[in-house]
Design goal:
Shape of chain B: elongated
Radius of gyration of chain B: 17 Å
Structural class of chain B: alpha+beta
Largest sheet of chain B: 3 strands, antiparallel
CATH superfamily of the domain at 2-104 and 148-162 and 188-224 in chain A: Class I glutamine amidotransferase (GATase) domain
Number of domains of chain B: 1
Largest interface: A-B, 20 and 11 residues
Number of helices of chain A: 6
CATH class of chain B: Alpha Beta
Number of strands of chain B: 3
Strand order of the largest sheet of chain B: 2-1-3
Structural class of chain A: alpha/beta
CATH architecture of the domain at 2-104 and 148-162 and 188-224 in chain A: 3-Layer(aba) Sandwich
CATH superfamily of chain B: Phosphoribosylformylglycinamidine synthase subunit PurS
Oligomer: heterodimer
Order of helices and strands of chain B: EHEHE
CATH topology of chain B: Mth169, Chain: A
Radius of gyration of chain A: 16 Å
Strand content of chain B: 25-35%
Distance between the termini of chain A: 8 Å
Number of strands of chain A: 11
Shape of chain A: globular
Chain lengths: 231, 85
């Protein structure tokens, strides 16, 4: 299993992800500069968090046009696994690899805190390999995390079971009070129809070690990888 | 020929614009009366070379659709004028 972490100018969670994937999970990790057109044979491509291109125009908009994204698109088309965290999720929606868009939080604040996630999908690995009744505590850190999709798109996501995580309280209740950024249907993470392209605003890589007091994020990363067969 | 495009990008009207909402509050605090709604968008000015106005419009439309606006959440409109050579 080889993992590639893409680095855009302004990415700032790339080294956290490299650390977790290599030192905690034991994978071979390649750092992939965004101008490169070579994925170096990785099985999983991670688009990390940060402020790529300074969030200019819209978060993730300019990064979506970086040379490496053509390769990421090809990789995804062939069924290869792609994971976008935070800014990476924004890049995936801007590149249309995932449906919908991420807007400014409804309270206009940068939200940096622990939140609770309720696994929502029983179809797709990242979510179904988790205990549906176990609520996960994962940090978020974003200003543009309000997930939006039109009514038809939301219907499709729901009908296809593509909603992976919803913002909840510690008991797993999902309601307006637990919707910290105003996302439609409390959506914190989704996948594409094939299940191989995954995007989420919360940061599992920041909660992956006992020394940091929380390993719920490691559970998410392990669940996601549990379905991957190494080519 | 050189053209100047003036492009306006606005979030769809049904999507909450928290920035506009905050500015509306500011206007009320300022004492500006009668303000019902404020929405904030982007204005982009771009000069470009093109063989004709049609070609310029086509290029601007592509730029808007593919990058300058995200049509999932935004509308765009533009005007175009030929610049003196």
């Amino acid at each position: 299993m080889k993992v590639g972490v893409v680095i855009f100018p302004g990415s700032n969670c790339d080294e956290d992800m490299v650390h977790v994937m290599s030192n905690v999970m034991g994978f071979d990790v390649e750092r992939l500069w965004h101008k490169s057109a070579d994925l170096k044979g990785v099985d999983l491509v991670v688009l990390p968090g940060g402020f790529s291109y300074g969030d200019y125009l819209r978060s993730g908009a300019i990064s979506g046009l970086s040379p490496i994204m053509d390769q990421v698109r090809e990789h995804a088309k062939k069924g290869g696994l792609v994971l976008g965290i935070c800014n990476g999720f924004q890049v995936l929606t801007e590149s249309r690899l995932l449906p919908g868009a991420l807007l400014h939080n409804d309270n206009q604040r940068f939200i940096c805190k622990n939140t609770f996630l309720k696994p929502a999908s029983t179809t797709y690995s990242i979510s179904s390999a988790l205990d549906a009744d176990e609520v996960l505590r994962i940090p978020v850190a974003h200003a543009e995390g309000r997930y939006f999709i039109d009514a038809k798109g939301l219907e499709d996501l729901q009908a296809n079971d593509q909603i992976l995580f919803r913002y909840s309280d510690e008991n797993g209740d999902v309601n307006a009070d637990t919707n910290l950024n105003g996302s439609i249907d409390n959506i914190a993470g989704i996948c594409n129809k094939a299940g191989n392209v995954i995007g989420m605003m919360p940061h599992p890589e920041r909660a992956a070690e006992q020394v940091l007091g929380n390993t719920d994020g490691l559970k998410i990363l392990q669940a996601m990888l549990s379905s991957v067969t190494v080519k | 020929m050189q053209y100047l495009a003036k492009i306006n990008v606005m979030t769809h009207s049904e999507i909450l614009d928290p920035q506009g909402k905050a500015v509306k509050l500011g206007l009320q605090n300022l004492g500006v009366k009668g303000v019902n709604d404020v929405r904030i968008g982007k204005r982009i000015e771009m000069t470009l070379e093109a063989d004709s106005e049609e070609a310029a419009k086509e290029a601007i439309d592509t730029a808007c659709k593919k990058l300058l606006a995200n049509v999932v959440m935004e509308n765009y409109e533009f005007t175009i004028e030929q610049m003196p050579s």
